[in-house]
Amino acid sequence: MIPEPKPDSPEVLAKIYAIFRDYFSKSEKKRRWNLRTDIPWEQCHRQSNPAIADLVETFCAVELYLPDYLARLIPQARANRGRTWMLASWGYEESKHSLVLSDWLLKSGHRTEEQLAALDAEVFSHHWELPFESARGMICYTMAQELATWLHYQNLRKMVDDDGDPALHRILTLIAIDERAHFDFFKRVVAVYLDFDRPGTLEQIRQVMNTFQMPAIHMLTDSRRRINAVRELRIFDEEMFVQQVFEPILAELNVSRKELRHRLAPRETVAVGALPWQ
Q: What is the pTM of this model?
């Protein structure tokens, strides 16, 4: 029988709130950046590779689902102050990501106001829903998703190094730092749950890793083209998920493959769900 996660105890809630306070303090001291003054906008490269602009637009579309992310996650986590306050802070940082990416698309000349308005309209015509009903499952999912998102931005930045756009390179650097910090918060929360209820938390991790998908992009009308571009340009694929998301997470949480596989049916493997944006 699959173990059900135990309800959060006051001790667990206190530990998660302490993790948030540490996260917030470090964010205020080390990571806050200004959309107007911290980007060398005058160095936007108007001749940069159109394939890079397409990827930036794809990432921007995913970030634009922020209202849905918050609308679904906050009610689920409302009784957990550490998580809800984190979601408020996370939402602020993610809103900057969508703003700075759309600003680059405009300032670089790769998109017009009308094209971005059309993208907005398409995004807001669909509603994103939670991939997991349990709050614990969503914490495990968000942990994996944040590390995968960091990897997307890191790999895109490598392409920009070759392309030579200082403004976009700076944007991707700042966003990647934010995403890594988000991952670290959720990893620390998952570690608390592993200490508190290891069987129930391991089951949530299993379910996430066997069904993992990046959020939202599949809802766009040209999702297949965007998915193929992400893979073909080596931004993110199944092998990267296993080697640079799944395995590092297990190592940092001190969970072995054997322990995680213990309850899996014979036909299931970790890589089955590692199909991004399907």
A: 0.89
